[in-house]
Amino acid sequence: MKMNALILGGDGYLGWPTAMHLSMKGHQVTVVDNYMRRNACTELDVGMLYPLPTLIERAKIWHEKTGLEIKVVIGDLTEPELMRSLFNGTLEYQWAIDQSYSGCPDTVFHYAEQPSAPYSLLNYKYANKTLSNNLLVTNNLMFALKDYSPETHVVHIGTMGEYGTPDIDIEEGWLDIEHKGRRDKFLFPRQASSLYHTTKIMDTDLMWFCVRMWGLRITDLMQGPVYGFETEESKVDDRLKTLFNYDEIFGTVINRFVVQAVSGYPLTVYGKGGQTRGYLNIKDTLQCVEKAAQCPAKAGELRIFNQIMETFSVNELAELTRKTGRNLGYEVEIQQLENPRKEAEEHYYNPTYQGLQEIGVEPHYLTEEVMASMFDCVSRYKDNIRHDVIFKGIKWG
User: Fold this and answer.
1) In the chain, where are the structural domains located?
2) Is pTM beyond 0.85 here?
3) Topology of 4-245+279-308+348-362 in CATH?
4) Residue 359 CA to chain centroid, in angstroms?
């Protein structure tokens, strides 16, 4: 079935590829963004790997190349009336071929959050920005759904970082508990490692409250770090690639390592390098959100999937990067740095993550060949890489 899709945070690393992917599949797509990520990169002087057109320009290029429309709204979703306009018919598009209101969305893809742990701990001002943005956007969405469209399904991007690194297996969101002869089911215990991750825990609690009170239907995807930046849709035109950060604040670890290797900067391994997490290719993010939308949660259900495809330690990723780089002729060195974060560097980590594959997701795995293709893509922009933004040692303490 074709859906009316609303993407909150549609200019972002994952939001824009999702918009193109769904549009190419024939769905009606509207994206909303306020350029928070881009503005933060400018404010903090952390360069992206390559320049990008604005969201409106990208939507125009997409239409020119494919004949398909991605409607664009530029605005701040912490403002409740903007959020409500997306559901009550008072919306004004900043760019659309057809300016008529598309109606209440069937599915909302919620990416509209400040996504960086280091950003959230720069100082109290950035902590406040993270808390206010992430929680107000989610709260505004919940009330808009309650008041105008409770049947709309939400696909929200959470994070595996909500769980921390417990010394037990991590289930998919829920845990059966037996206590003093009685049994019940609860959200899996959370223990965030940053203020950003704390806001994601608060998201989950807020959504669970609204599901129980108002019968909303929500799928929360606990996502691990994503790598890569090319998708099938971005091949339509080079200007349609998603944003790509390689700095300590907004860059994800595999993306950062590849850029460091290409530019001759030693790979930045924090502490002992035993930190183990779950990872996925950006192409799998697109699969996951699409499959979740095709199999929506029931009314009154908060459904949780762990959105990862495989696990690696930082040391394993560094070694794979070094091996791949050296096979391609790069001199790749590994540098172990004093860990600026407060985290367990050696720990048990065994998450369950079969749910998405059970509804049809087919994983892409991180191989030397896949990483070599990333080296090739990054090398095209080697002259843009700035060593001064790669590592600044933002400390948790």
Assistant:
1) 4-245+279-308+348-362
2) yes
3) Rossmann fold (3.40.50)
4) 20
